[in-house]
Amino acid sequence: MNAMKAWHNESIAELTHHLATDVEQGLTDDKVKNRLSQYGPNKLQKGKRFSALAILISQFKSLVIWVLIGAAGISAVLGEIVDGLAIIAIVILNAIIGFAQEFRAGKAAAALARLAAPHCRVVRNGHSVVVAATEIVPGDILLLEGGDLVAADARLVQASVLRTNEAPLTGESQVVDKFTDSLPAETPLAEQKNMVFLGTSVTGGSGRALVVNTGMETQLGHIAKLLKSAERGETPLQRRLDRVARLLLWACLGIVALIFIFGLLLRGIPAFELFLSAVSLAVAAIPEGLPAVVTVALALGVQRMVLRNALVRHMAAVETLGCAEVICTDKTGTLTMGEMTARKLVTSESLYRITGGGYATEGTFFVGNKESWPSENPELLALLRASVACNDAELTIKEDRLAVVGDPTEGALLAAAAKGDITRETIETEMPRLATVPFDSDRKRMTVIRRQGNSPWAYVKGAPEVILARCTLIRTAEGVRPLTEDARTRLLQANTSLANDALRVLAVAERPLDDFSLEPGRVMNDTEIEKDLIFLGLVGLQDPPRVEAKEAVVKCKRAGIKTVMITGDHPDTACAIGKELGILGKGDEILVGTELDRLDDKALKERVAQVSVYARVTAEHKLRIVRAWKARGTVVAMTGDGVNDAPAIKEASIGIAMGITGTEVTKEAADIIVTDDNFASIVAAVEEGRGIYDNIAKTLAYLLSGNTGELIVMLVAILMGWPLPLLALHLLWINLVTDGFPALALATDPIERDVMNRPPRRSQEELFNPDFIKLILFTGLLIAGVTLAVFAYELYYANNGLEQARDAAFTTLITAELLRAFAARSEQRTIWQLGLFSNIRLFLVVAVSFALLLAIHHVPIFQALFQIEPLTLDQCIGWIAVGFIPLIILQLRKVMLYR
């Protein structure tokens, strides 16, 4: 079978002929057996799950890690066992943290398979039977009732007030009224109201449906195929770190060659001795703490993001968010509340605006800017009471928040009435229900008959044009009056105005049934009841934008990030929400799914930058949009909650799922789960991502400039024919302790205030740009300069011997490194602008490192190990004073360049 065949376009007679079945009798057992053999079981193929071993191995893919492992091996060969073990310990720690974060990845397709219904009711051999959903075949007749999960894609052949929830497939929370009429071939998936689909559920009514596709040929199966084809690739951080590793590798080889050639040709040092010295220096040049710093920065970012309502499933994704140039976001529940809300009411004389979003029962009624309550307005009170009287929904508390049981639109009416102190309980007590004429998609209205006092009353709601056509009276502040043509015209204009604001409009009416008796066994005729109605008013409903979403969109624009809304909703609704939130501005385009179908991938790539809103889109459309952005070299984030979002979420540079409304499939495909389903939380996560990248960049600059300084010290000493100023143990201590711990503290630096006022980084941007290299070389030269100066002074001017000269170099270099950590916190802002104690961890680490430096000088075992003598007061003051020089110069540089 072809999953994309336009089954909704065929007549029922054509379908039964094509599928060789009978609507009343169903398939015979023989036909079922043959078709099971032909089409296979009705189930989705499960994707491969990553094993724990595969996840662990993936932690060693980075070139940085292999450079470190190589350095550890060389250290062991050279006899520096302690150095080698320290480096290996860092590699293992990095792998453990990464493994723990990613252990639960790779289960999206398996979760998708769990959406299928385990059992269902079908007609076979002329009888209703319950069978396993996996045994359903094309041509089967499904019997559907409220509460059923749909077991396959099927065309409706009978429908009685049938309504389904297709949110898992289309992403839209509104229930869908179903019918059996054929539809045009080009009808979008979200509007195929004569079809039911695997993975969706029946919310009410009953029906009979002819199965047209099963298993991987269903719409859900098509999404499963897209999910398998989606590929994320490396994150920008992984690419940058691999480029850093390659650069370090070549730099180390260059150092070995340079020192070997200079030492051999200029100094005449024996080749083997020279080779060992050169390799030792190359190993010392590698920032062993880099993987640990990156991992800790990401892990701390993960913890901070939890506090900002974002759970991270893959650590590298944290930084990727900081590169985001485009955020493609679902509308329902992310930009909007995800809960229908009555926003405007129109009565005979007034237009009311209602505050309070979702199903919350707190809010205020306004006419213009003046509060106006139902207790003061009889026509408003009557409208709200009737909205509750003609209602089958209930408001209940679920997970500490109000939720609706039943139709979301009816839930919104209950919430609006509750704001005026009118509750369902009060109505049920005062006006017991006598009978109901249920909503029907053909009639477009619903009626409930209740006893009010000693007589029955009918309460009706439905499509405005349908209700108004049956009204002859209207309720006003002075009482019931005839409905004039002028009033009718004015109300129809109000209906158009509300609709133009992308509000879903319902009309509400009532009438006394004094001449109507509810005799036992009497069949009600809706024509008798729903005539000569008293018009009460119009209710404009909408899933309202979140208050904080508009501010978040503005924040994105300020940060140079384009927000794109992708929804399965109607274009008018999408356009209205887009304009209200500031997503759809002057010159921006809106594109409908049918128009997108007419664009090939090349044309979409060219046009995608101009489109800010997409409406009536499918899972495949979303995937194509994400791929078009990626084809432009753009880092794109994709958010969503439905199964139809999962392929695009997996394909995106960064996939974000909704935690409350999101399906398990979507969550498993995502890198990040937003626990409050709020677009503002996504923007907060972007802010964290940018801050994390800044911290990684500053710690890398700190580590490399320190290592550069050490290399210059050692290289100059060799070229000058001096003794080595630092021993191997000195270098190890400086790299792992003096550099390593401040670098870890820098990784925890608070996010800078202006981080969201900058444009996003390009994904191909190099860490080692010219400015970065200049800063490293400048800082390295400063550190090397003061270190070589004190070494030469002690050895050749003061004649204090090699041990004291090395002590001076060791102490001065450590001082310069520790103090420089404060300067490394910002490229532009000085210490006094940042505040000395604004990163208390760094302050404490520097203080403890200075204490350890004193311990090395005064604890006998350390003195012997480091070949160091106790410090005198004069030495302490002098060497530490010289160590301040790089910090002072770096601060003056910032003042001159950025004041």
From TrEMBL:
Keywords: ATP-binding, Cell membrane, Membrane, Nucleotide-binding, Translocase, Transmembrane, Transmembrane helix. GO terms for cellular component: plasma membrane. GO terms for molecular function: ATP binding; ATP hydrolysis activity; P-type ion transporter activity. SUPFAM superfamilies: Calcium ATPase, transduction domain A, Calcium ATPase, transmembrane domain M, HAD-like, Metal cation-transporting ATPase, ATP-binding domain N. The keyword Transmembrane applies. Residues 6-80 form the Cation-transporting P-type ATPase N-terminal domain. The chain crosses the membrane at residues 52-75, 81-100, 247-269, 275-300, 772-793, 842-866, 872-892. Its main location: membrane. It is found in: Cell membrane. It is a multi-pass membrane protein. It holds the Pfam family Cation_ATPase_N. The keyword Membrane applies. Belongs to the cation transport ATPase (P-type) (TC 3.A.3) family. Type IIA subfamily. This is Ca2+-transporting ATPase. The lineage of its organism: Bacteria, Pseudomonadati, Pseudomonadota, Betaproteobacteria, Nitrosomonadales.
